[in-house]
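User: Thioredoxin-like protein CITRX, chloroplastic, Miscanthus lutarioriparius:
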Amino acid sequence: MAPAAAFLSACAAGSLPRAPSLIPGRLLLPVPLSPARWDRSRGCSLVSVGASTRRAPTLRRNASAETAVPYVPGSGKYIAPDYLVRKVSAEEVQELVRGHRKVPLIVDFYATWCGPCVQMAQDIEMLAVEYEDNALFVKVDTDDEYEFAKDMQVRGLPTLYFFSPDQNKDAIRTEGLIPMDMMRNIIDNEL
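Assistant: Predicted structure for Thioredoxin-like protein CITRX, chloroplastic:
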């Protein structure tokens, strides 16, 4: 026990000699930074090179001047104020469903920690651009609106509800990651 304690205290003090390197002639060369790392206009950047590797908040490239909100890429929060599909509360969804609409309503139940939800969010954003005035897309965060999601029988994520402008038609419900063509087919042919 005494030799182990002596060895540990010598290691802590730094008095033990270092073993020779197993790879002779090994050189440490500085690695040049890629253009994405030194050009701040291309996305996220590091705070400093060295001890800290945390990302610095940057402004999203498509954000308008009046909605300049700090956005940290990779933070898990993919909902930003400049997205076309806006996040709504349970009360707002109920008002939209009960209200008079001339276009279909698509409600996306998602969570920020859900990988397929992030993938589908990109497809939904593209569909929102494609169906700009012909459909209304909204999102509901199931972590924020847990009781509403439970009442809507959301068991798997992502879950989409397609509401027709005709109040007599039933809503169409999909669960899981579905292709964009299937969403287009439901909007064009089923609603």
